[in-house]
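Thread amino acids onto this structure.
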């Protein structure tokens, strides 16, 4: 497991209290208590679907033009959309390429309900798959889809705008809602949510999570504030947590941080990111998804991955270069891997499995960022399967 292995070379993680490991083990056990495919979308997801439909229309996906360009799709091909979300990429593919078949994966039952609707509109061209990246190999096998048989894979990592826009999902600090953050929704009722994390783990464990997954410099200060606040009342709401974090800083600092558009960013932003990544095991899932893509793609097939923060991008970059992630501290911005770890890297910047279509990550154009500010930190990496 990447979380555990990276702790060997990360001093902060190495100092983490045993509570965090016990909590993680319980967390993992809860994930495997159900079948691989898991239950179908629940009534709760249908209610959320109605709320999605009632809100503003879905946004244009980040770097859609670039994604379609590098996928270079042709009629009759099979495409795996590993992060269906609101369906923006899949809809664009269906409209642009005739007779293409899209395997639409998502771990969120609400997203799968949207995929099922789209499947009815495009008979036989959309195959919804409910599950995580780590469950995908079994899902494909159950559909009798063989290794090296898929023409293209796209992966838009992180949290979807649909999830961010729903206050009841608990992802956004700007919207008051239950402190949930589970991408699976109610699919695994016993799965720990963000409120369980902030109200259960001790100060040192919380600080380790904020450091590892949020790259938060003030992790100890924030963890201390959380522990003090929960002694009075459990922290169960998003804006309650945001207020606790903000309260540990002088008022002038709360919005002193700037994003890449030089706009004010709330001081709790990295805390929310860290909790979301931990609750959903996002980095391990991303690594699992990349491994499945490597197996599923046929020679000459294309993979496009969009990431939104440095932890994701470093993991993707090193995977595509052939780094040995089992021994790699992917949280470190300085460590670039040993010579032994880089033996699989080719002179063209790829690996034994991948040929880069662009040596460097592709960034969104200024106009795209102005239209969709959430894509300001996006990076697209496009590769060809050797």
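Threaded sequence (386 positions):
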């Amino acid at each position: 497991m990447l979380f555990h292995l990276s702790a060997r070379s990360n001093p902060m993680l190495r100092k983490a209290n045993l509570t965090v490991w016990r909590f993680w083990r319980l967390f993992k056990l809860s994930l495997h208590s159900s079948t691989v495919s898991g239950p179908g979308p629940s009534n709760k997801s249908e209610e959320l679907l109605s709320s999605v439909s009632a809100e503003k229309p879905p946004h244009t996906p980040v770097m859609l033009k670039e994604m379609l360009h590098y996928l270079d799709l042709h009629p009759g091909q099979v495409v795996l959309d590993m992060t269906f979300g609101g369906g923006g990429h899949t809809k664009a593919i269906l409209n642009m390429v005739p007779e293409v078949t899209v395997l639409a994966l998502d771990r969120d039952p609400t997203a799968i309900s949207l995929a099922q609707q789209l499947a009815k509109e495009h008979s036989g061209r959309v195959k919804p798959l409910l599950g995580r990246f780590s469950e995908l190999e079994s899902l494909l096998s159950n559909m009798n889809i063989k290794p090296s048989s898929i023409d293209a894979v796209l992966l838009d990592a992180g949290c979807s705008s649909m999830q961010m826009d729903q206050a009841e999902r608990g992802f956004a600090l700007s919207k008051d809602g239950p402190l949930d953050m589970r991408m699976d929704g109610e699919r695994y009722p016993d799965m720990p949510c963000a409120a369980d994390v902030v109200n259960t783990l001790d100060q040192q464990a919380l600080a380790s999570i904020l450091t590892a997954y949020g790259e938060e410099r003030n992790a100890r200060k924030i963890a201390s504030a959380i522990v003090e606040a929960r002694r009075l009342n459990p922290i169960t709401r998003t804006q309650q947590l945001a207020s606790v974090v903000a309260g540990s800083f002088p008022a002038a600092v709360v919005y002193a941080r700037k994003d890449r558009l030089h706009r004010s960013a709330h001081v709790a932003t990295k805390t929310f990111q860290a909790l979301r990544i931990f609750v959903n095991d996002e980095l391990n899932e991303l690594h699992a998804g990349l491994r499945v893509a490597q197996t599923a793609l046929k020679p000459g097939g294309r993979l496009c991955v969009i990431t939104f923060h440095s932890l994701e991008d470093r993991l993707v970059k090193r995977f595509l270069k052939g780094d040995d992630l089992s021994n790699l501290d992917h949280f470190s911005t300085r460590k670039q891997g040993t010579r032994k770890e880089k033996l699989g890297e080719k002179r063209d910047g790829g690996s034994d499995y991948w040929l880069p279509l662009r040596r460097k990550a592709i960034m969104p154009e200024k106009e795209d960022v102005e239209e969709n500010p959430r894509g300001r930190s996006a990076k697209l990496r496009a590769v060809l399967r050797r």
